Amino acid sequence: MLEFSEGSYIQRKTLFVEVILPLAISRNYTYRVPFEMNSLVETGKRVVVQFGKSKLYTAIIASITEHAPEKYEAKYIIEVLDDKPVVTERQLKFWHWIAEYYMCNEGEVMNAALPSALKLASETKVMLNRDYEFDRTQLNDKEFLITEALDIQPELTISDIAKLLGQKTVMPILKSLFEKNVINISEEVSERYKPRRKTYLTLNPEYNNPESRKELFTILEKRAPKQADAVLAYMKLSRQQKAVTKNELVEESGAGDSSIKSLIEKEVFIAEERTVSRLGYDENDDIANFTLSNAQQIALQEVQQQLTEKDVVLLHGVTSSGKTQIYIRLIEDAMATGKQVLYLLPEIALTTHIIERLRVYFGTHIGVYHSRFNDNERVEVWRKVLDNEYQVVLGARSSVFLPFHDLGLIIVDEEHETSYKQYDPAPRYNARDAAIYLANLHKGKVLLGSATPAFETYFNARTKKFGLVELAERYGGVQLPLIEVVSIGKETKDKTMQSHFTSVLMLDMEQAIANKEQVILFQNRRGYAPILMCRICAYTPKCINCDVSLTYHKHSGKLHCHYCGYKEDTPSVCPACGSTHLEYKGFGTEKVEDELSMLMPDARLARMDLDTTRSRNSLQTILNNLEEKKIDVLVGTQMVAKGLDFADVTVIGIINADSLLKYPDYRANERSFQMLAQVSGRAGRRGKQGKVVIQTYDPNHRVIKQVIANDYADLYFTEMEERKSFHYPPFYRIINLDVKHKNPEILYNQAEYLANELRKHFGERVIGPEPPLINRIRNYYIKSIMLKFERDTISIVKAKAVIREVITQFQTTKLAKGSIVQPDVDPY
């Protein structure tokens, strides 16, 4: 392209950028770069673009080219938001792989990967920042006009402001107002991340000698006793810690802000504002030492050896065998070579529990990342990983998306856990499998750890694809817990049951509490009662949006749907027959806690499930109370099964094992064994042997016997024979297609058409369509089509390409109107 300038022709490049938009569109979009922004664009930076008629979005630059798109005229990018890339080249490759492997779009991956504070869009609200005093005389005419309008109307949308100013693009003006602290903007437009600042105080060196300090106290005690108290409090705090904040001094001294401000003005204190971490630890901790047992030392050496030969190694160690200590040694090895480490954990509960322990070893070198952090905290971790300030990151599944530079080791603890799998929304990825590809991108290594490995992982280890190291004894020589199986049927017949508790469990709980020990009770269902039923006509209230019965929650007094969040008041009269004979069937954690409080009124009870851990710090509070022995009995769902390590928990009660064993899923036996073994592993972890009481109607069930014998190998070989016969993983790969529509009759035709089209390519590998266990969620009816592919004789890449083509062809037909098709690769 030639430009005329002052009598001569100047040739300059016209650049185009292919960008990833945070939308579920099948292709990336290309935009033109204004010449003045040519030097600013760079792969991985964010740009503001218009998509559609009027909406603005933040997009990530995926590539830069000089070729214009052939099929459409490229619009100009509006603004480049970053001085340096916020997404690395490796991340973009990783996003592309996730999108290809899990059959979704890169925009959906971007949405999952980026903290929302780094994503911007236009249809949002703008309001004045009422917490900040600003000088309106310092604003330009357009900025002043916006603030005047916001005085009249507290909230304005971007389109309102565009109309007010009579111009299309208002982002630069809003950005300027935001940087001046004049306005607040919701996450879609604003650069929401702001560093956290604290005011630190130091005593003026003038008062370092005793004489000058004495003179200062004499003056202050007479004229300003509160200020004297503040100086004394400072002296006390400065002896206990390295740095003193203004807030700490106010709290310790009882002096008000005004007293501290006066001391700063008198230059008694020197105030310094510093950027500090929001993550709760600013000071370095000393690295503590521990000694590995002989078995751990051998396992560590084997892992180190196998990691030189294999990219992935499985550490199969019984519960409480000290796997975490081996992880620490491996992390230290990686850090010594300057590499970064990602330590993945399946649950936020486990993450918050273990971080305090790992901080002892790694201090501020370790970052934490999970969904309970607010946006500012997530962006802070993101930037620190990007700037190489964190060598170790501990987090839940979304941590795989962080911008690592040189990832040497990924540890996937409790690798069998289903929590590593993202189910909704897309991308429906498994963090364990994604971690293996991510490590490969960085030429790093992966260590998978579990007492009860997923069968696919164990299969890969036994067939030499992965390395395998066994750790068969508990740390410190502690014995595995004694397991006693109690028949609910027999105790019910003998009338020795108390509510949902057998006499054996009640006695063991009472003895544990008398010995000042702790108890964990496991019931894998939350709420008070799963079903409310009319005794006369058998009516059961159901969700208006989903095909499930409503669960009664006593704390709210309402019936809840656990799928869409719908709630309704509990009826006192049956809506069907008018009977007043309504009764609760089944029980959840809330009912277990409630009834136990009546049976053991002096016991200190707590409950850990989704309902009690919704607020920001509630989970950590429960875990701290358990560790500090403020709780005698903890009742919980599967949260309590995952890696918790408390010295005084000696009794575990599994209230009803049958709810796990009877689940209609080919993995039911594997999952039941894992859950029962993991819950059992919480007992007797230090010194004293613990006890597990399993309550069941079927005490002779094969899986229960295998749990008692801790015989994972017997379970594995038995189940693998069935898996091979019935074409299930690890011998076959599975891809599920969920077809959804609000009209069940239209859905039937759509699903049948799609299944028949797939059969033309894959024949008997296509199973269904069939309704899933719950066939209506959020007003959408669902039909599932399952495809099974031989692992060794068919190219899964080619199979996915065909499936994509069939789905695309289906979506171009009139029949597809109103439908949603959701692919799920490796759904289990």
Describe the structure in your own words.
Its EC number is 5.6.2.4. It comes from Mucilaginibacter glaciei. It is an enzyme of class 5 (isomerase). With about 850 residues, the protein is α/β, with parallel strands linked by helices. Helix content is about 35%, strand content about 20%. The chain has 6 domains: about 1-120, 3-Layer(aba) Sandwich (GIY-YIG endonuclease); about 125-185; about 205-275, no CATH class; about 295-475, Rossmann fold (3-Layer(aba) Sandwich); about 480-530 and about 585-720, P-loop containing nucleotide triphosphate hydrolases (Rossmann fold), CATH 3.40.50; about 730-825, Ribosomal protein S10 (Alpha-Beta Plaits, 2-Layer Sandwich), CATH 3.30.70. The strands form 9 sheets. Strands 16-17-15-18-19-14-20 form a 7-stranded parallel beta sheet, with helices on both faces. Strands 21-31-30-22-29-28 form a 6-stranded parallel beta sheet, with helices on both faces. Strand 5 (about 45-50) and strand 6 (about 55-65) form a beta hairpin. The longest helix has 19 residues, at about 745-760.
